[in-house]
Amino acid sequence: MYNKIMEINKLLSPFRRAINDYRMILPHDKVAVGVSGGKDSMTLLTLLAAFQRHFDIPFDLLAVTVDMGFADGLFDPVQRYCDSLGVQYSCVKTDIAQIIFDIRKESNPCSLCAKMRRGALNGEITKRGFDKLALGHHRDDVVDTFMLSLFYEGRLNTFQPVSYMSRSGVTLIRPMIYIAERDIVGFAKDLPVVTSPCPANRNTEREHMKQLLQLLSKECPGIEEKFANAIMHPERYNLWLKPYD
Known about the structure:
globular, single chain, 10 helices, Rossmann fold, alpha/beta, 6-stranded mixed beta sheet, 245 residues
C-alpha cells in the first residue's frame, strides 16, 4: 500500500503542475475523461479521481467509454473500477467496428475510427452537461505527434495542452503531458487494463514512429526528453502558448 501511495504521488506532482500551468481545471468545472480501457486512460482516470479527492479545486467527474462493438462485456472491469473510485461511468454502445471493418472494409481505418469515436464521445458528454474532455496523452505522445507532423506533413506542430473545439463546444485538456510513458507503464500494472481487440492495434504510423524513436534513443540516450523540453518551452519556439497569454 505504501509503495502504491508513493507511485501515485510521483505522478500527481507533474499532473498537478500541468493542470496549474495551463489552467486546465477550474472550480466547478464539469470534466469528462475518455476511457478506452488502455493503460493511459486508466491511469488518467485514477489520477483525476485522486486529484478530485485531495486538492482544493471542486469539480464534477464523469468517465466515458465508447464501445466500438467488438465484444460484449469487454468494459465490465472499467465499470467496476469506476464504482470503486466513486466516479460516474457511461459506456456508449456503437457499431463503429462493424461499419469500419465489415461494411466499409477500410484499409487505413484509424483516421475514420478516431473521428467516429470522438463524435460519439462528444455527443455523450454534451448530453450529460459536461464541457471539458480529458484525454490520456502523455509526454511521449507529444513527441510522437511532433515527429509525425514533421515526417509526414513537413510541419513543426503537435497538439496543444488545452484546445477548444468550436463545433462541439468541448474543451480538450491533456493533464498527463509532463508524465513519461515509462512511468505510466509501471503504474498501470496494478490497474484493470483492457486489451484492445482492434485489428489495427500496434500497426499504425504512430507505433512505427515510436519504434523509430526507440532506435534513435540507442544512439542518442534521452532524445525523447530533449524533444519534449524543446516543445514545452514556448519562449523558444512558440509551439505551446499559455492559454491566458
